[in-house]
Amino acid sequence: MSESAVLIEPMSKLKHLMRCLRDKRFGCAWDQKQTYKSIAPYTLEEAYEVLDAIEREDFDHLKEELGDLLFQVIFYAQIAEEEQRFTFDDIADGIVEKMLRRHPHVFPEADLTRFGEPTTLTDQQISEQWQHIKAQEKANQKPRKGVVDESRLDAIPRSMPALMQAVKIQQSVSKVGFDWSDIAPVFDKIREELDELEDAIKEQDTVHVEEEMGDVLFAVSNLARHLNVSPDVALNKTNEKFRRRFGRIEALVAAQDKKLTDCSLQELDYYWDQAKREGL
């Protein structure tokens, strides 16, 4: 009986499928040549598609997108196993161990079998304990390859989307007191950065304009953080709203047998306002 014939459990099937795709003799030519770096952009794309399905509450699509994201993890694990670095089971064991360690109020002494024992800790104590455990883990970590005198910000990936990275940076420095205690100075900072951007535009210095534009976006993302709003999620929702409204403009223009380029800005603004009145 072949190996595939005895595979029943879904995760085992998925791992076996990945091994088949990477098989040097009978596998897929495209899958065979992939590396960690070559599939990394697809991982980011799949993560965003998961987020999109959640935002639209499209749960059938969410199931599919979570499968695509899981496939990315299996892909990395297979490459790592081929290179004798680690396996998928090592990944699973590692995250289980970490979660047990970080949840002693749920699993006393990091023992999975002790689940169900009541805890006397408050929410505040649980949060403080979580931060203490994370700090302890960081102190015990081996230095990262090529990193000397590591900054607390080095743990934030530079490849992370810019707005998300800005929030992570702000959250990190906030923990050491480098933050405003209330929201008023954040608005002041945004106004200050907008003034500096306007000055840079007047100077017609493109390099300076780019720098000041970045400062404005960083300040706005800081405002979002203080409001407990994800700037990425908020911007995605605005993008979706713009899509709906502009789609309505296209429909209204097409209904008059006209092209968008035939309309003045005033006409397009009128249709935009109509889309807003329609609740789009």
Topology overview:
Blueprint: H1 3-6, H2 10-22, H3 29-32, H4 36-55, H5 59-82, H6 88-102, H7 123-140, H8 162-174, H9 184-203, H10 206-226, H11 231-254, H12 265-277
Helix pairs in contact: 2-5, 4-5, 8-10, 9-10, 11-12
Relative helix content: 55-70%
Structural class: mainly alpha
Per CATH, the superfamily of the largest domain is MazG-like
Order of helices and strands: HHHHHHHHHHHH
CATH architecture of the largest domain: Orthogonal Bundle
Q: Termini distance?
A: 59 Å
From the alpha carbons, calculate the radius of gyration and give it in angstroms.
Answer: 25 Å
Query: What low-confidence regions span 5 or more consecutive residues with pLDDT below 50?
Result: 1-7
CATH C-level class of the largest domain is: Mainly Alpha
Strand content: under 5%
